[in-house]
Amino acid sequence: MDPREFRNALGYFSTGVTVITGKVDDKLIGLTANAFSSLSLDPPLILVCIDKKASSMAAFNKQSPFAVNILQEGQEDECWRFAKRAEDKYEGASYTFSKDGVPILNDNLATLECTVEEVLEGGDHYIVTGRVQSASRNEQLKPLLFFGGKTGHLAE
């Protein structure tokens, strides 16, 4: 299987966009992820797939808190800011802190506050499962979508 063709084909599955946020010691981490899914309603579990080479993997230890920021159409800057390698991805970002000290982006479509349940091997990625501790959403907003390597919006 040609890896580039495989990647291109997967790019034609439209998804929402998330930014996964957390911290390692006092350092804030964040990464854009579209490999995200609900996993279980009882108990409430989600999963996100993270590249094994990602420096932010150090934040995902058993029971470590993290947040899934589900982006809305006005958050394209956040999508691309957290997709790049940078020393301080939070520079210019608008966020607050959860009670656990995890950064939460402002104005999300939805936010899930989680703790790490398990980290599993998955080829060149880790599959991080998270137990959802709290969830919130804004029904007035519309999702940011990802398709074919580009962000987009729902048509009216």
From TrEMBL:
UniProt entry tagged with the keyword Lyase: no
SUPFAM superfamilies: FMN-binding split barrel
Pfam families on file: Flavin_Reduct
GO molecular function: FMN binding; riboflavin reductase (NADPH) activity
Keywords: Oxidoreductase
Residue ranges of every copy of the Flavin reductase like domain listed in the record: 10-153
Domain of life assignment: Bacteria
Family: Belongs to the non-flavoprotein flavin reductase family.
Name of this protein: Oxidoreductase
